[in-house]
Every structure is written in C-alpha cells, then in structure tokens.
Amino acid sequence: MSRRVRIGVVGGGVVGSLVAAGLAGRDDVEVICCERSAQDMQIDVGTGLNIGPNGVKALRHFLPEVAESLVAASLPWFEWTVALTDSTPLARFELDQLADNPGLRIGWAALNTRLRASAGAAIRYGTDVIAAGQDGDSPFIDLRVDSGETHRIDDLDLLIAADGRYSVVRESLLASDTTEYTDVALLRLLCPAPADCPIDDYGQWFNGPNRLLAFRIPGDRVYCAGAFPLPGDGTLTDAMKDPLAISALFIPPSGQVSPAVRFLLDAILGSGGRLHWARLQERATRLVGASRVVLAGDAAHPMLPTLGQGATQSIEDACVLLDEIRHALAGGGALQDVPAQFAARRQQRIDFVTGFSRDATDTMRAGADPVAGTARKLEPAFLSKLQQLYRDVPRPR
Ligand SMILES: Cc1cc2nc3c(=O)[nH]c(=O)nc-3n(C[C@H](O)[C@H](O)[C@H](O)COP(=O)(O)OP(=O)(O)OC[C@H]3O[C@@H](n4cnc5c(N)ncnc54)[C@H](O)[C@@H]3O)c2cc1C
C-alpha cells in the first residue's frame, strides 16, 4: 500500500480548523494539526466578531455543513449603519443590496468551538510549534508538548502555516519584515444585553475620528469595539485606558449622546477596566514560505481590521487551499505545486482586500472628518468595491 500523504498544519484557529475539517475522514491523507492552546482553552473568549457575507458564501461553496453550523450559532448581519455619537445619521449600508447573503455575528468562543468540532481528531492540542524548516525538499516542524518534551515531525509533503499574526513558521522560513503600525488604539469588550438594549445589528458611531462599533451576538450579549487615534509617538498610556477618559472621547460638544452610545459608554464605565487592547497594525502579504510550505490567514496577511475581513479572508484562504489540496489528491496536480497555485488564486484578492481595508480606515485617523469621509463611502466607487468584496468569492475549480 502506498504511503499516505502527510500534511502538517500549524495552528488550529480559523484556517487550521477549516482545512482539517475539509480533509477529515479521508484515508489517503494524514493531517497533523498542531495547536498550542489546550482543547478547552479559548483565546479571546471575551469578544465577538462579524463574518462578512463573502465568508459565508465561500463556505457554502466548499464546506456547506460548516457554513450551516456557523449560521446556526450566530445572528445574521443584515445592515451596517453609521451615525455621529449625538445620533445624527450618516449612512446605512443594506447588505441585501451589496451582497448575495447576510453575514454573521458570532461570539469568539462559539466560532472556535464550532470550527474545532468540525476538525475532529486531527487537532493535537497543547502542542506548541517552536520552529519550522526544510530538510532538502521536505518541510519539518519542531514542537514542544505540554509535558515539556520536544520532538520533530518531518517528511511532510506539505506544511500549512495557519499560526496567526505572530507566525513562528513565517519567522522561521522568511526574512523578517517590519510591522506597520497605524496610530489608532482599539479596545474591545463583551457585555450583557438587557431586554431594552438599544443595540442590535452592526452600528458605528463617530465623534471626530473616535469611533464606537457594536452589535448584538447570540446569548443576549453585545460586542463593542472602540477606536481612537493615539497622539505623539503612538504610545497607549495607562491614563488613556481609564474608562472615564475613554468615555470622554465619545461625548460631542453638545454633551448629548444617542441611547446606543449611552449604553456602550455605560458598559465601558462599568467594565472595571477589563478591556482587550490592541494597536492597529499590518504586515506585508506572504503566501509562499518555501517549497511545499504555504502561508494562509493572519500568518500570510495580517491586515487592518476596519472592514472585519481578517477571519473572513482566512475562511476564503482555507476554502482555496482545500480546493487545491483536494485537486492534487485526486490526481489533477502535484501537492508540491499547492503553494504556488494557492498564491496564484489568492494574491490579487488579498491585495484588493488589504488595500481596501487600509483605505476604509481614513475616518479613524487623527484629524479625520467622519461626515465627509462617510459621505465618500456612499459614492459609487466605494459601493462598487463593497460589492466586489462581498460577492466575488473563490469558487471551486
Ligand atoms: C478580538 C478580535 C476581534 C476580531 N474581529 C474580527 C471580525 O469582526 N471579523 C473578522 O473577519 N476578523 C476579525 N478578527 C480577525 C480574526 O480573528 C483573524 O483574522 C483570524 O482569526 C485569523 O485566522 P487564522 O486562522 O489565520 O489565525 P487564528 O484564528 O489567530 O489562529 C491561529 C491559531 O494558531 C495557534 N498558534 C499560534 N502559534 C502557534 C504555534 N507556534 N504552535 C501551535 N499553535 C499556534 C493559536 O493558538 C491559534 O489557535 C478579530 C480578531 C480579534 C482578536
């Protein structure tokens, strides 16, 4: 009997789980997916996310059962409204005019749980990959398990770097490149939604460039993300993290805020400072790591989060990777060509999405005017790009 193909996957997040799910149950391939967290440990459980209509559409083409599992665990994302914090409306984007289906609103824990369940036994939890390399034409990974023991997995036919924004595989195999910081701080929190909660579908509220974003997710909770430009050298100080200081950023000169903004500011004030913090950042796109090594998701293209496309593009990546691997396993091509074929199918789309996310960040930069900036987003040029984003998803070969 011929040897089964061995595919190593580093990271059991969005990309890793989906690739493992799509190859589960095959007897011609062994998938070894190494995930550093423990099975029951959730990263970023205290947050939510929206998956763009394009992520749902792509999943329906390639992994329909996973798509329906996520739909069942989420709320539909139908519209995106923009207003000033004093309640002056600026824009309403109705996704049924711009996309072929709604997007999703979901909690991180629910997303992770559903994706990892779909991957089954392929994920080895508590397995930290500490380095990756090439032995001739074959990639290998060095890993450390929970007991502290280290060992090497070699003789891989394909290695997939799905280990996120701080990818060890990328660091091991490619010359390190710089992280581009945008001087905007981002805070996130998840709070309970009482019966009279004024937040439902996806909304944004601006006071100058300071922006609140929020939507409801299942389990009667509201996910909120606040963003504001960082002055000076871009350092986020403890004083800036004070809930009272944060709240003041969103109060307009009139002192009047809409009920939705009041609710969000009360949630921030009541958070006891337990907020998740980040600074906007991105890195160059790298889709090919070496012969037989492919990078996908945040490991390949850590992008600005403005259009909520990080996980969504990771889903698209996983779909195309699966398509290429299935094609090679069916004898239509060689597994060693998967990285180049994947890059050929993804590069243009990723360039478009990363550039579009960067452009859409205009209203969040220091000195930005959200009224003029949002008006530009209602013009045909922006709307047609949104349709391209939400509709032009990868299709099976
Ligand atoms: C709070 C928050 C909110 C977000 N909101 C949105 C949103 O609304 N919409 C959207 O589309 N995107 C959003 N994103 C971005 C999105 O989460 C990422 O783009 C997406 O998760 C990337 O998927 P991935 O599979 O590449 O990496 P991840 O999902 O980050 O998975 C990487 C996995 O690799 C594991 N890992 C890392 N290093 C190693 C190692 N050395 N060895 C073994 N395992 C390793 C990690 O534990 C993790 O499980 C958000 C991100 C965060 C943190």
UniProtKB/TrEMBL annotation:
<keyword id="KW-0503">Monooxygenase</keyword>
<dbReference type="GO" id="GO:0018658">
    <property type="term" value="F:salicylate 1-monooxygenase activity"/>
</dbReference>
<dbReference type="GO" id="GO:0071949">
    <property type="term" value="F:FAD binding"/>
</dbReference>
<protein>
    <submittedName>
        <fullName>Salicylate hydroxylase</fullName>
        <ecNumber>1.14.13.1</ecNumber>
    </submittedName>
</protein>
<dbReference type="InterPro" id="IPR050493">
    <property type="entry name" value="FAD-dep_Monooxygenase_BioMet"/>
</dbReference>
<keyword id="KW-0560">Oxidoreductase</keyword>
<dbReference type="Pfam" id="PF01494">
    <property type="entry name" value="FAD_binding_3"/>
</dbReference>
<dbReference type="InterPro" id="IPR002938">
    <property type="entry name" value="FAD-bd"/>
</dbReference>
<feature type="domain" description="FAD-binding">
    <location>
        <begin position="280"/>
        <end position="333"/>
    </location>
</feature>
<dbReference type="InterPro" id="IPR036188">
    <property type="entry name" value="FAD/NAD-bd_sf"/>
</dbReference>
